[in-house]
Predict the structure.
Amino acid sequence: MMKNNIFSLKGKIAIVTGALGLIGRNHCIALNEAGAKVVVADLDEQKCHEFSEHQLKDSIGHYLDVTNKESIIWLLKDVLLNYKRIDVLVNNAAINDMFENPKAATGQSKFENYPVELWQKSLDVNLTGVFLCSQVIGSQMVIQNKGSIINISSTYGISAPDQNLYKNQEGIQSFYKPPAYPVTKAGVIMLTKYLAAYWGQSGIRVNTLTPGGVKNGQDDYFIENYSKKTPLGRMAGPDDYKGALVFLASDASSYMTGSNLVVDGGWTCW
C-alpha cells in the first residue's frame, strides 16, 4: 500500500443520487470502501436509510427528487449540518424506461410513436436533474474552492443504439430503443465539459463516467447480441465501475477535468 494513497477517500463526504439503483448501490459501496462517508440519496427515504445503515459505514440516507430544486437545497442543508462540507457529487440518477421495463416495450417504443410525455420525463430526470444538482451542490463546492463532480453517462450518449440488439432469436424486433435516453446522456457529456471549463479556476473538477451495459436479468438473446458486439465478449457486472469511480473521486485524477472516462469492455472502439 502506498505511503500516501492517492486513491484514498478517507474523511471525504460524497453524495450519490439515484443511489438505490443497481449501479448506484455499487457506487456507494465503492466510495465507502475507499474511505468516504456516503450520502445515499434517492426517492425512497426509508430504503436509503436501510441501505446506508446495513451496507455502509458512517453513512446516511436521504430523500432526494433531482427534478425539484427545493429538494436538492434541503439535502444540501442537511449534509452541511451533519458534515460541514461536500467533497464528491455523483450525478447517477436517471431513468431508462424501455430498456429496464421490457414489458412496456410496445409499438410506442418506435420513434414515430414515442410519446412526448416520456421524452419530457427523461429530459427532466436525466438532464435537468444533473443540471440542478450540479447548480446547487456545485455552488457549495465553489465556496469550499474544491470538489469533484462525476456525471454518469452511457455508451448510448456517444454511439447511437443498434436496434438489431433488440431482435430475438427469430429475428423479430421485440422493441426499439427510444430516443430519450441516448439524447439525454449525450447532453450529460456536454454539460460536463461546460461545467469543467466554467468552474476550473474555482478548484472544481467535473468529469463524466460512461459505463457500458450491465447484465441484469435481460433476455438471453439480448445478452448474447450485446456480448457479440463487445470486444471483451460480455456485459458488465454491477461492480465493474467501482475502480473508475474511485479514481475520478480521488486525488489520483487531480489533473483531470472535462474528460469522459469510457468503461465499456471496448464497445465503442469499433
